[in-house]
Amino acid sequence: MSSAKPFIFVCGADDFLVNRAGKTRFGELAREVEDEFSREMLSGFASNVAEVEAAVGRFRESVQTVSMFGGRRLVWLKDVNFLADTPTGRAESTLKVVEDLQELLAKVNPAEVLVLITAAPIDRRRAFYKWCEKTADFVFTGGAGTDKNADALAGVVMAEARVLGVTFSEGALRLLLARVGPNTRLLIEETHKLATALDEGAAVIEEPLVDELTPNVAEGDFFEAAEAFFSGDLKWTLAALHRHFFGGGDARPVISSLQNRNRLLLQVRALVDAGDLRPGPRGFSKADLDRAAETYGRHFAGATEKSAYNLFTQHPFYLGKLADAKKLPGMRRLIDNQMELVNAFEEIIRRPAEQEDVLREMTVRCLGA
């Protein structure tokens, strides 16, 4: 598995994907270097120029060390972050150290030492990156901007699913991305969980399975309070708030989560009352939502990113679950909720030491009637 190139360079936008690819490659190379004392892993993580210099210094010393038993050595410089477009990465001193690193790598003899470098994120405009593309056994993994690009994240999920011998329906994939958000590690873990949960012989993960097994972690740990509040269950909501504050939570993210959902429900309520949307057992019809978007989408001109301000950026299945016809509050209740949330935010500014009390009082006013 050794490379004819002087070293191996694995990079990308997502540190989890890059580290996973590096770990796989290191395992393959380790089979060629049986002596565990001849294998070394070094951290390339640096938060300032001094740490960059120290990391490259350790790497230089390791690469130039002769094996105790005369065989080849294996050195992995992992978690390199000083090749990114950051203040540390742009510093003149860092760029000089990177030039020294390039000079060192150009002289590596793979017959004596196998070198693996993993770096994320990385500035692809830099000369060092382009030099590595031409010189190294080079791998770019995860796609550009994986941490922000939904298409790239979808590609990661589908690639993982193929490895597991399954696939996602289009709706299930969108719902998974909506539930988990831009967390590559968790997306992969959820893909494994969903694949394992499929019935024997089944190969397609559908929306209901994602809805049943994947929590809505994209909204954070305060999701339970929002779920309880909009179910109308006063006792559950108060208990969820207590758990949130007992764990040292703050009121602001809870209020933000409640406001985001309330905004969506206001829009849904208006469209349901107008007859433009009809809740069904599998959420809202995509055709209905598309027709409504054609009619009202002009009011959201330029708003293409997923947002609670624009229900047309949301997944129809998610909207339908959010706005269960049996639990969808009336317009007056939703407007009152919004005013109560604004008042609660102002109140916690006045009573910062009583945040739980403020939200409990607000909840009782909204749900206790």
TrEMBL record:
Keywords: DNA replication, DNA-directed DNA polymerase, Nucleotidyltransferase, Transferase. GO terms for cellular component: DNA polymerase III complex. Gene3D superfamilies: 1.10.8.60, P-loop containing nucleotide triphosphate hydrolases (3.40.50.300). Coiled coil: none annotated. Residues 58-136 form the DNA polymerase III delta N-terminal domain. One of its GO terms (biological process) is DNA-templated DNA replication. GO terms for molecular function: DNA binding; DNA-directed DNA polymerase activity. Transmembrane segments: none annotated. The keyword Transferase applies. It comes from the Bacteria. It holds the Pfam family DNA_pol3_delta. InterPro entries: DNA_pol3_delta_N, DNA_polIII_delta, P-loop_NTPase. PANTHER family: DNA POLYMERASE III SUBUNIT DELTA. This is DNA polymerase III subunit delta. The lineage of its organism: Bacteria, Pseudomonadati, Verrucomicrobiota, Opitutia, Opitutales.
